[in-house]
Amino acid sequence: YELVKLLLSYGAEVNCYFRVISNTVFPTALQYCLRDQAMLRLLLNNGYQAHKHFVSVSWLAHLAGSVVRILLDYVSHISICFNLKRILERTPHLIHFASAPGEPRSLQHLCRLVIRGRMDIRMLNDPEAMAAVPFPPRLINYLTYSEDDLNGRL
């Protein structure tokens, strides 16, 4: 985690495609964190574009539920493609994700996304900068997804 944080602090691009080794349908960094929720959240908190439907490829079907659960925290409008909806419907304990696109997101969630969208990613990930923002600590924790920090690793 520390190495990834260091790379990100020096401007590493989380949405880049490195096609020399493998030609993926999603940014290369994600293939290293699909089984690691903390790493996935770290990339999402540092600007990964959560609206890409990379989990609809067949070889990721077994991970779709846990990855979609995390991605839902980072998008305002949910549009699940046909392939992903079919994968989610085949898994009984994930059936509620298949109906999620028709349900509106909470106002609280939408406000978080709007505020985050107006702030710089580097500022959001800098504890000192966030301490200087005139927001209450609970709001800062919500904006920075601190409540989802798994074991203090983010």
TrEMBL record:
PROSITE patterns: SOCS. SUPFAM superfamilies: SOCS box-like. InterPro entries: SOCS_box, SOCS_box-like_dom_sf. Residues 103-145 form the SOCS box domain. Pathway: Protein modification; protein ubiquitination. Pfam families: SOCS_box (PF07525). This is SOCS box domain-containing protein. It comes from Xenoophorus captivus. The lineage of its organism: Eukaryota, Metazoa, Chordata, Craniata, Vertebrata.
